[in-house]
Design a protein that fits this description.
The chain has 346 residues and is of the alpha+beta class. The chain has helices spanning 4-22, 28-56, 63-69, 74-86, 101-124, 129-139, 145-154, 201-209, 241-244, 285-294, 327-330, and strands at residues 90-93, 96-99, 180-181, 190-196, 217-223, 228-232, 235-239, 247-252, 263-264, 273-279, 301-307, 314-318, 321-325, 333-338.
Length: 346
């Protein structure tokens, strides 16, 4: 005859295992189920974005293109694509995948969250620019419509993200980018950078390394098949056309700007004098407020006061006060150098 104590212990142990596995909401089974649903949701949204960006660029994608673009099990991707077709998010046309009206609306909602998050990261946090995209890629799947609306209101309902991409409105409207890639313009063109594409990452990192910013003016000096040379904020830049193609500019009339008179404070030499004409749009949030609080405001005269042995940081004389900042911050401050007129001999 079985020992009743042992039977009771076995029974309680079985109950405990069942509770751990199937307890509502927190049980292992339900957590696994939610994880599967969440992974499927993320995959659907990633596929919708891939198709949207392809269509926006005038291209098409088929199932193999999507499998190649995603780090996921090919069979699972095909199953998700089939599910998306059943939900009427996509349709097939000669093997190419097309967004339906429902799929387009869904894709724009995800893109709206992504670009709002990039705007939030640029304005409200200290995360580096190179990290904005990857963080937003994760967060875009986590916000519902109410949270997205609250985020947009908190940011002042911005029209563009920090890369210059238009942010879709709540109703799905999206503004066009009124410009063309830098290589499309001829020598002598003066323009303003209005968009910097952040994909592919390898090209975006090259642009970041050059310290090129949204809102900066450019003057194209040389253009050929191997390189494009242009001036911006008092510095010369040389880019391969494939890299320059990720920079969109809006052409300006020559009388709208005198590019040769604008430079960065970091380029100011000892014994030179200048006046501040602005702070780059790239400088945001706490850094911008700090520079303004320190006195780096428009029409203020400035000159180099002291230079450290490594030339970074440097101290600048502003209103009889010496203020030290690093070159990384000085690049944000735009100046117009004051030409000293030689005194005439009597």
């Amino acid at each position: 005859m079985a020992n009743p104590v042992i039977s009771l212990i076995v029974f309680l142990l079985i109950i405990a295992i069942l509770v751990v596995l199937f307890y509502p909401k927190t049980g292992f089974y339900w957590r696994l189920h939610r994880s599967f649903k969440r992974d499927s949701k993320v995959l659907i949204e990633d596929i919708l974005k891939k198709i949207y960006h392809a269509e926006d660029n005038g291209n098409t994608l088929n199932s193999n293109d999507i499998i190649s673009a995603l780090e996921a099990n090919p069979k699972k991707v095909l199953d998700i694509i089939s599910e998306m077709e059943d939900k009427e998010l996509i349709s097939f046309e000669n093997g190419d995948i097309k967004l339906s009206e429902l799929g387009m609306d869904y894709a724009l909602r995800i893109i709206r969250v992504h670009r709002l998050w990039e705007k939030y990261l640029s304005e409200k946090t200290g995360f580096a620019k190179k990290d904005w995209h990857s963080i937003a890629e994760k967060m875009e799947h986590k916000l519902d419509s109410v949270q997205t609306k609250e985020l947009a209101i908190d940011l002042g309902n911005p029209r563009f993200d920090p890369h210059g991409d238009p942010i879709p409105t709540e109703s799905g409207e999206i503004e066009p980018i009124n410009g063309q890639p830098l290589p499309n313009f001829s020598e002598g063109t003066i323009g303003r950078i209005i968009h910097i594409e952040d994909e592919p990452e390898i090209i975006y990192k090259q642009i970041l390394a050059e310290d090129l910013h949204i809102g900066s003016h450019v003057l194209i000096i040389e253009k050929n098949e191997k390189r494009i040379v242009f001036h911006s904020e008092g510095e010369e830049f040389i880019l391969a056309p494939i890299v320059a193609n990720n920079i969109t500019i809006f052409e300006l009339e020559k009388e709208e700007i005198s590019e040769e008179n604008t430079s960065r404070l970091s380029s100011l030499k000892e014994n030179e004098k200048a006046k501040i004409i602005g702070i780059s749009h790239e400088c945001r949030g706490e850094i911008r407020r700090r520079l303004l609080d320190l006195g780096f405001v428009i029409n203020t005269k400035i000159e180099v006061d002291l230079t450290s042995p490594m030339r970074n940081p440097r101290a600048y004389l502003i209103r009889d006060t010496s203020i030290a900042i690093r070159n990384e911050q000085a690049k944000f401050i735009l100046i117009e150098k004051i030409k000293e007129h030689a005194k005439s001999n009597k």
